[in-house]
Every structure is written in structure tokens, then in C-alpha cells.
Amino acid sequence: MDAILGAANDNKRPDVSRLYDGWTKRWVQSKHQSDYGKFRLDSGKFYQDKERDKGLQTTEDAKFYALSARFKPFSNENETLVVQFSVKHEQGIDCGGGYVKLFPATLNQEDMHSESQYYIMFGPDICGFGNNRLQVILYHRGKYHENNKTLKCRINKDTHLYTLILRPNATYEVKIDNEKVTGGELEADWDFLPPKKIKDPYARKPRKWDERLQIEDPEDKKPEDWQDSEFIPDPDAKKPDDWNEAMDGVWEGPLIPNVKYKGEWKPRIIDNPNYQGEWIHPEIDNPKYRPDPTICHYHNISVLGLDLWQVKSGSIFDNFLLTNDEEFAEEVGNMTWGLRKDVEQQWRELYEEMEKQKEAEEAKKKREKQRAKQEDIWGLDEEDEEENEEDAEEEAEERPKQEGSGERASVDQKEAHFEQKDEL
């Protein structure tokens, strides 16, 4: 496993080929609860080099995980901090974390848990279809702050490289697979501080301020002959002679459609000559705002941890790197993730194709087996049907004979009856 944990203020470049065979000694399992999921060192199903591509793999479904490694404490004050690692969700993760956390030196590793104070949380966080978020949570003045942007992570089964860069000029950059996906100013993209400007609490929109872009023409008048009644009383209708208003009320004739009806009249619309534009609330300097040049300056960074929950296990974490050198981080990414990605992808695609073929063959065999079973059943039914058809044919042949003999017997009886009558 290429577990490179270099201090951010250490100018020495670690040997990328170094493998930590004694990872169980370097990484500490938390004992905060007894049922944490277990990690193992594994390269998974798809890799370029089976030994070199081994990483820390989650092995138990529906488990919390709490594993951490300690290194010499350092600070990123006046220094660039690069947090980089790779993760492969070859199990097809449906809900779970794939991020890392940076902790202060005060962390008790054997008691690390989800409520333990951390400085940085960075990496994929997936739960449900479409909810694939790339978390960048930073600690400042006793609170955790999420990035205001919606960042998406990669959710396929390949290994992906995640890189977070915090610079001393209070800017940042996030990269996936050594390509920038976002960046900017820390103060702009996190709500670390109160806003620089606020609306003037004493400002009020003038009562006569006219924001109407268009108005009805006050000089436009409805024509005298404009008919806006859709129905009118029938002029030819007559009140019945026997109509009694005392009994029947006031007589009202029936209504008929107005042939001169033009619809509801409305004055034409014109540009408002008094339009002043939208009133903008004036802003003033926020008296509560104070610039903070120490945003995301952390001291005694000393532990990198995997504090996760996963429904479906199988994620492989590898290539952990902390450094102050952006170019070096990119170089390490190319020498680790970069060397394996194409071979791993090709192998995965080949494996999946073979699995599809295997499933198709098994499905075919299952269908053939079911078909053979059904044919056996159908074959018995056909024999029964043939016997029934033969019986039906025999019955059909015998029926005319029986009917004929019956008719003949009836005729003989009639003839005997007449002969007996003649004798009488």
C-alpha cells in the first residue's frame, strides 16, 4: 500500500515506492465501541499490480469504521496544505462515506468516534441515487462549515484521486483525478465570517418611488359605442298578460347574445414616464465583520482518520498524502493512480463483460431446463388429449347408430299399433 503521510512543512519528498507491510502497527483501531467494522489490506478485483495497489478495504456491511494513523505534528500556518488520497468503490457503493479526516494531536486514537473534533473532512459521501456529494468541511472558531457549492464526486467502480489544496492566501482548489473541479476564496465559499456588507437598517424605500415599468394610459377612454355586455334583454320579448308583479315579482325578459359584443374594454398599456427602476436597498459596512487572516490555519495536525459508515462494504483507500508541494502531489498522483487507472478500468470492463456472459449462459440454461420440464408436462397432456379425441370420435360414430336404432324401434311400434287397431 502506497501510504504516504508526509508532513506539510517537511520539504523531504517521501519515497513513493515505499510499502507499509506493517500497516496494522501504524493504523490504530478505535475501541470507542466494540462493533466497528474491520479493515484488511487488499487490492480488490481490478488492479495493475496486485501488491503495489493494495489499500485499506472495508469488509463488513452496515458498519461504522474508525481507523487512524498518527504522524509528526505540523502546522499549515503560512504554508500550503495538500490533502490527497484515492478511493475505489468497486462494490458499487449505495450509501456510505469515502472521505478522510484530519485531527489534532490531542486526539485519543483508541477513542476516536464520529463526535471527535477534527480540522478537515474531505472526500466522497454517497447515500442514495443522485446524492453523490464531495464533502469539504472545514473547522473554524469552534464550528464546522460546509462548502456553499454543490460538489459532485465520482460514483463508478474505478479508483479516483481526490485532492484538496488550502493556500496561505486564503484560496483553495479541489481536484478529482488530478483535474481541477472548483476553487476560489475560502471566505467567499464558506460562511466562516459574517458578511462584509449588510442592508442599511435605517434605509426605507420612498413612498412615491415608482417601480412600475408600464402603466395603463390615463388618457385612453372607452368609446361611447363600445359594447361590453355579452348578453342583452330580448327586445322582442313581451310580458305575459297574466303576469302579476305582486305575486310573480318584477318581470325580466329573457337574455339573448349581444351581436355587438366586443369584450371587456381595457385601456392600452404604455411605458411609465415616471419609472424610477427597482429600488435597491443600500448597504453599509457590517460592524460585526472582522477580517481573519488565520482562516484554516491549523496547528498540531497529527492524525489522519477514516471515520465512516457504510451500508455496502468493499471500498479501498490508498495513496494518502499530506504535503505543502502542489506539484509533488500531482506527481505522486500520476505515479500511483495515474499508472493503474487505464489497466484497472480495462480489467473491470472485461470482468463485467465476462460476468454478463456468465449470467446470460446461466439464464439460458435455466430457461432450457424450464422448457424441458414444461415439454414433459405438455407431452403427457397431448397423449391425454389424443385419447380423448379417439373416444370422442368413437362416440360420434356410435351415436348415429344408436339414434337410428331408436327411430327404427319407434316406427316398428307404430306399425304394430296400427295392425292391432285394424284387427279390432
UniProtKB/TrEMBL annotation:
Record key words, sorted: Chaperone, Endoplasmic reticulum, Repeat, Signal
Region ranges (Disordered): 209-239, 360-424
Tagged with keyword Endoplasmic reticulum: yes
Residue spans of biased composition, Basic and acidic residues class: 209-225, 360-376, 398-424
Extent of Acidic residues compositional bias: 378-397
Coiled coil: none
Pfam families per UniProt: Calreticulin (PF00262)
Record keyword Transcription regulation present: no
Principal place of residence: endoplasmic reticulum
Compartments, as annotated in UniProt: Endoplasmic reticulum lumen
SUPFAM superfamilies to which the protein is assigned, alphabetical: Concanavalin A-like lectins/glucanases (SSF49899), P-domain of calnexin/calreticulin (SSF63887)
Domain of life: Eukaryota
Family the entry assigns: Belongs to the calreticulin family.
UniProt name for this protein: Calreticulin
